[in-house]
Amino acid sequence: MNFAVLSRITIFLLLLMTSNPVNCGRILVIVLGPSYSHQILFRSLTRKLAERGHEVVFVTNLISKNSSLTNYTEIDFTSMRKLLEMDRVTTFIPKYNRFTKYEVDDFAFSMGHLLTEYFYTHPEIKKIYAPGSNEKFDLVIVEGLISCGAFAIAHMLNVPYIAMISTDLHMYHNYLLGAPILPTHLSNWELFHYISPDMSFWERLQAFAVASVAVHHWYDFQTGEHEKSIRNIVGVDLPPFYDIAKNMSLLLVNQNPLLGYARPLAPNVIEYTSFHIAEDPPPLTPELSEFLGNATDGFIYMSLGCTMRPSQVLARVVKEIYNAFSRLPYKVLWKYDGDDIPKRNGNVLTSEWIPQESVLAHPNIKLFIFQGGMQSAEEAVYYGVPLLGVPIIFDQTYRIRKLVSLGVCKMVDVSTVDEETFYNAIFEIINNKSYKESMTELSRLMKDKPYESKEQIIWWVEYVMRHKGAPHLRFSGADDPWYQRYDMDIIAFLSIISFVVTIISAILLLRTLRWLYKHLQMFLWFSKCFCLTEGKKKVE
Questions:
Q1: CA–CA separation, 377 vs 389, rounded Å?
Q2: Which positions make up the signal peptide (predicted)?
Q3: Which of 72, 224, 281, 478 is 20 to 30 A from 196 via CA?
């Protein structure tokens, strides 16, 4: 056997050994929401899938303009980012976390409905689902919160789909998949206004009522509106949207009992954490590198995320916060977009954009002041940085309260905080070693897992592709009406029977007592008569 033949055999065997266990497929990934933190999570997923050899078509409003991957295509939805500037978004700013569950749902559902209509009318999307289209896919992955209206395209393409969310589970996700909702449990982050560790009966009743109304509002309003819009746009007869939604193969959810609370899950719910965190954070800019490198006493980093503009959120207290920073013996790096404070003055440096992971990984960091977002919390825990929480909207108060309970964070109310309160909170966290020690232990727990989240998620995605869906993981209870899921009809029947038996028993007891009373009176009367008769005989 000559050398050329041996070389070919060797190359073939090497390719065979290094090949992926699943045939490469074509995957449509859809993320319609304008939040950068949500987009960046899916960016990590799509890149990893493309690196595995799959052809990825990514519907996104955060275009990367990177053509290095020939099997990676982006469909531009950047025009949807203007939804962030709508008046309805800014109405949440002065209220902070004092909005009702109904207001949150109404806002989210309305935005989701607009995104759904825009999605199905987009020219590039029409090419995909149009009758006779040559576009073929093996799997659809959809952001499962505000983009859930896109679930229906998987049915049109006749392929399985996976939903993925970047936050904790919502109540309607649990209802959709047949898992218990647990309206009065601490894990139900949507009801943080109503839930506490020690709730009275009436508080639990209120939380139960709010949860029930919220779930059925989603079931009756959200799914119905999506169904109506999609049918009108695509012009084909579809199954009920609720049926499409509950038949997802998997729900990938960004949650961990360490940052939330353990709860029972449906079999097709897969948890992951820290998916977006880079193995090697990008290098700092020369200016930031010099500023942080010279922070020999340490530095503080503040960022309130990407969804809201800090200049709007902090309009009332920006001077208070700036004055508190100026008094500190530490350098301060502040992600801020306003021009009402100097860009660089004394120990404070502000910038509209900061590479957060690179900053949190810096050895000189002392404290991270954040709004309570999931991705920021994961990064802080991963790099072991103590926290000061300034919650603004949605799930942020819930998450910060949990971190406070773990001893790694303090919380201040942005609507009432003043310079002295802010300064004292910072000083306490930095000078009380227990915050850093607790965060170091929490970081160790978070990192101690049998496999990396990226490997886990990619394995499950390819699992669904290999088996063309995962109906065997679905909980059949998801098909039952709500009253059967919790045996409410049986409980009601037994309650009625118990009530009837109690009433009948009470009636019988009452009649028995009357009978006894009547006969006792007769007995006493006869006894009295007998005594009188005997008395007369003795007298005679």
A1: 10
A2: 1-24
A3: 478
Measuring CA to CA, which residue among 21, 121, 45 is closest to residue 79?
121
What SS3 string covers 247-294?
Answer: CCCEEEEECCCCCCCCCCCCCCEEEECCCCCCCCCCCCCHHHHHHHHC
- 3-class SS of residue 389: strand
Residue 324 burial by CB count (10 A; 0-12/13-18/19+): exposed, middle or buried?
buried
Helix 201-217 vs helix 101-121: crossing angle, to nearest 10? 20
Residues 6 or more apart from 365 whose CB is under 8 A from it? Answer: 292, 298, 299, 300, 301, 359, 383, 385
Residue 49 confidence (pLDDT): 94
pLDDT at residue number 102: 61
Reported as type and span, the H/E element at residue 382 is helix 374-383
Per-residue tokens: 407: 């001893």
Q: Which pLDDT score, from 0 to 100, does residue 370 have?
A: 95
Tokens representing 535 are 């008395």
The strand ranges marked E within 344-432 are: 344-345, 348-351, 365-370, 387-389, 409-411
Rounded distance, CA 5 to CA 484, Å? 67
3-state secondary structure of 346: coil
Dihedral over Cα of 49, 50, 54, 60: its sign: positive
Q: What is the pLDDT of residues 183-222, one digit of tens each?
A: 888 888 777 777 777 888 888 888 888 888 888 888 877 7
Q: pLDDT tens-digit profile of 138-155?
A: 999 999 888 888 999 999
**Domains of the chain (ranges, CATH numbers):** 26-272+470-475 (3.40.50), 286-447 (3.40.50.2000)
pLDDT value at residue 96: 46
Tell whether the model's pLDDT for residue 490 goes beyond 70: yes
* Mean pLDDT, rounded, of the chain: 85
Question: Strand pairing partners for 516?
Answer: none
Cβ(271)–Cβ(166) below 8 Å: no
Q: Which pTM does this prediction carry?
A: 0.85
Consecutive H or E run containing 223: helix 223-234
Centroid of chain to Cα 382? 19
What b/e readout covers 272-310, taking b as 16+ CB neighbours within 10 angstroms? Answer: bbbbbbeeebeebeeebeebbeebeebbbbbbbbbbbbb
Q: Which two tokens stand for residue 18?
A: 């290094």
C-alpha torsion 330→336→340→341, nearest 10: 20
Q: Is residue 441 predicted with pLDDT exceeding 90?
A: yes
Predicted confidence band of residue 82 (pLDDT cuts 50, 70, 90): low
Q: What stretches of 406-487 show up as alpha helix (H) in DSSP?
A: 419-431, 433-447, 453-466, 482-485
- The DSSP letter of residue 218 is I
What region does 372 belong to: left with phi over 0, alpha with psi -120 to 50, or beta?
A: left
Q: Of 73, 154, 161, which Cα lies nearest the Cα of 119?
A: 154
Reference 315, options 414, 245, 219; nearest CA is 414
